[in-house]
Design a protein that fits this description.
This protein is an alpha/beta fold and about 130 residues long. It is built from two helices and seven strands.
Length: about 130
């Protein structure tokens, strides 16, 4: 068996709100319940398992590799919701997307301040 990432826990203030936000933004099915987690499944078998911890957590970064069509849809949702977005993780290029490696990328925040990124090309893939 090869080693694969299976899931990660995303700490948050309101797991229902945060899990539903991610599912909506990425066009995923509604989160499911597993034990005390709200689980958002990805197509490659990985899940993000949301759990509340009283608001004591470090802000994390989660990057999602998407198709060009999915990027258009996600970016449309970002704009429709009036969310702030950036072309870079330092947030020095507000209101822009990037074209790294010949693709497109955008950064935006979830309700807890976690940095979400949608990219159409993996970093270092050229282009």
């Amino acid at each position: 068996m090869s080693i694969q990432l299976n899931h990660t826990i995303v700490w948050c203030k309101d797991q229902v709100k945060s899990a539903n936000f991610l599912a909506e933004m990425l066009g995923r099915p509604k989160p499911s319940k597993f034990a005390h987690f709200d689980v958002v499944d990805m197509d490659n078998g990985i899940s993000l398992d949301y759990a509340e911890n009283g608001g004591h957590f470090s802000v994390q970064h989660y990057a999602f590799l998407v198709s060009e069509a999915e990027f258009d849809t996600i970016f449309g949702r970002i704009r429709d919701k009036g969310l702030d977005y950036w072309a870079d993780p330092a947030r020095s290029r507000p209101g822009e997307i990037n074209h790294n490696d010949g693709g497109r990328g955008v950064y935006f925040l979830d309700p807890d301040g976690h940095v979400l990124e949608a990219i159409t090309r993996p970093y270092g893939s050229g282009g």
